[in-house]
Amino acid sequence: MNIEQLIADDEGTIVDVRTPGEFMGGHVAGSINIPLNEVPYRIEELKNLKAPLILCCASGNRSGQVENYLSSNGFSCVNGGSWMTVNYLKSLSHQL
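The structure assignment produced for this chain is given below.
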């Protein structure tokens, strides 16, 4: 899945897996916060989100862990890397 195209086409849901404190310090508009350590307990909530899930965090490490976990559980998801990169791509898509 091409992250740039997914964001440009407004496909899926952006899920930020950082802590609530990090999320409050800045996040992608319209994204939802489900911290890494809560992901296994919020599977039903994740199933109800518009797929694919575009995962992000501070650097791409935690979102990569979540991508591995969710994809092994049948989810359509992609690691978007840093939330700032995803935010930049989203801002570009609104300029087009």
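Interim note for the steering committee: The chain has a mean pLDDT of 95. The first strand starts at residue 13 and ends at 16.
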